[in-house]
Amino acid sequence: xxxxxxxxxxxxxxxxxxxxxxxxxxxxxxxxxxxxxxxxxxxxxxxxxxxxxxxxxxxxxxxxxxxxxxxxxxxxxxxxxxxxxxxxxxxxxxxxxxxxxxxxxxxxxxxxxxxxxxxxxxxxxxxxxxxxxxxxxxxxxxxxxxxxxxxxxxxxxxxxxxxxxxxxxxxxxxxxxxxxxxxxxxxxxxxxxxxxxxxxxxxxxxxxxxxxxxxxxxxxxxxxxxxxxxxxxxxxxxxxxxxxxxxxxxxxxxxxxxxxxxxxxxxxxxxxxxxxxxxxxxxxxxxxxxxxxxxxxxxxxxxxxxxxxxxxxxxxxxxxxxxxxxxxxxxxxxxxxxxxxxxxxxxxxxxxxxx
Length: 355
Ligand code: PHE
Description:
The chain has two domains: about 5-90; about 110-350, Bira Bifunctional Protein, Domain 2 (BirA Bifunctional Protein, domain 2), CATH 3.30.930. The strands form two sheets. Strands 1, 4, 5, 6, 7, 8, 9 and 10 form an eight-stranded mixed β-sheet that branches. Strands 2-3 form a two-stranded antiparallel ribbon. About 40% of the residues lie in helices and about 20% in strands. It is α+β, with helices and mostly antiparallel strands. A hairpin with a 2-residue loop joins strand 6 (about 245-250) and strand 7. Bound molecules: phenylalanine. Phenylalanine binds near residues 254 and 284.
């Protein structure tokens, strides 16, 4: 018997007794591994005389193909057996009653953050984030807010006991500083997040949510700010026209600064955003102060831009007709069942997942 015939017959004996995938794998190694029997025969090819080579190579290839095929078939047979075994043991009783399950709801604040992010992402803003515990420097000093500024007052700010240099951020603006310190202009970001102030009544909670916007580039003007906000308000409230006015205001980190009001009217005891003769304040904004740019090593002679900050909770209240801010954070399941959003039933203007 030639070597090849021997190999073939040893293989036949072995493959017939294989029962598991592990056994099959070891046969595979024995014949096709680095020092496997077939592999060694291939290595032998080089040392043969040319007239023997052709004949041997063709026989070797035939055997190789035949053995590989048998391994494949065996593998298939073992897998089939395993599945059949499983099926016999796992019978499903379709007559059993269904198990009760609770379907979670998306909190209106999370919903609104998703909506806002998707609206701004369409005009090129990306989302940045920062920590709730901030340094006094990022929250105030770098934002051009002097030591004696009333916003730093203990009555407004939660300072951390041990280290007076740390606090719970009073706005999302410190993320402007973090972003600009860590990158190079241009910057075009929005920052949703939790913010804290020592304040509590029907429209103020000690913890609330803000959305910051920052756009810095070579030629960004207040005109761009206005266009950007106009686009946002229309998209968010799903209205074609919206009356908007800029009122002069003051923030240490912007110059000039403005507060923005939008028009609304009351119809059937409900707020309707768009036109009408009433005004509603929705955000603060302005052109980033040159001192802020200097603090983050951005040259104010080359770069400029706008920033804005708005209350997310208030936007959620306005859009979805919720009138007590405190209820947002009481974790009352009945409230959430009523005002929350079904994760499988996204509103029509929510482009985050469905688009
Ligand atoms: N940080 C300001 C606030 O909390 C809002 C704001 C942000 C104003 C950016 C101007 C520019 O009231």
